[in-house]
Amino acid sequence: MTDTLLRIDASARTEGSTSRALTDRIAAKLAPARTITRDLSGGLPLIDANWIGANFTPEADRTDAHRDALALSDTLIEELKAADTLLIGVPVYNFGVPTGLKAWVDQVARAGVTFRYTEAGPEGLLTGKRAILAVASGGTEVDSPIDFATPYMRHMLGFMGITDIQVVRSDRQMVDATASSARADTDIEGLAA
To answer: What is the per-residue pLDDT across 163-174, written as a single tens digit (0 to 9) for each?
Structure first.
């Protein structure tokens, strides 16, 4: 059983979204004791020069303006740290992730906070967590040469230390909706609660 689930919905569609339907079904199967929900449909602020300046200022030297610039990032990271399991709805837009999801990754991938650099290379600091990617696409097959969304999410989560990653896919819906639905059913059935 998952104690705390961080559910992230990235589809711009709040109604009729396959990735949201998948995250609903997966969340019901996991039956977490607590769910933190983050809906990215309205977008997130993109990192900018102020954010970068604040991020690279040592914490002890940060001004109120620095802390304000990093406040959302800090909140998103606290949600990540609090979760045992991440459930991320990943609709494939133009072969990649939606802008809101990319902005979320940019806000949470912070050197010294969610990863660090060592002599042996980068080391993720968010170990011991599980992630489930609920991937939905109209024509892109998951893990095909034209799927840049799924490998990107696996890489970024792994970069931050989250390496237990499962994929539930409802891909190629516009090519074969029946097969797409069957793949999703099989993937959800195979998830451990």
So the answer is: 999 999 999 998
1: pLDDT strictly greater than 60: no
140 is in an annotated binding site: no
Q: Locate tokens 């977008």: which residue?
A: 43
180 labelled as ligand-binding? no
Sequence-distant (6+) residues with CB within 8 A of 36 are 4, 5, 6, 7, 79, 82, 83
Q: Please check if 18 is assigned to a binding site.
A: yes
Query: Residue 118 belongs to what domain range?
Result: 4-189
pLDDT band at 183 (very low <50, low <70, confident <90, very high): confident
CATH number at residue 80: 3.40.50.360
Q: Which two tokens stand for residue 82?
A: 């609090």
Give the whole-angstrom CA distance, residue 160 versus residue 137: 25
Residue 19 assigned as binding residue: yes
Residue 91, burial from CB neighbour count under 10 angstroms (0-12, 13-18, 19+):
buried
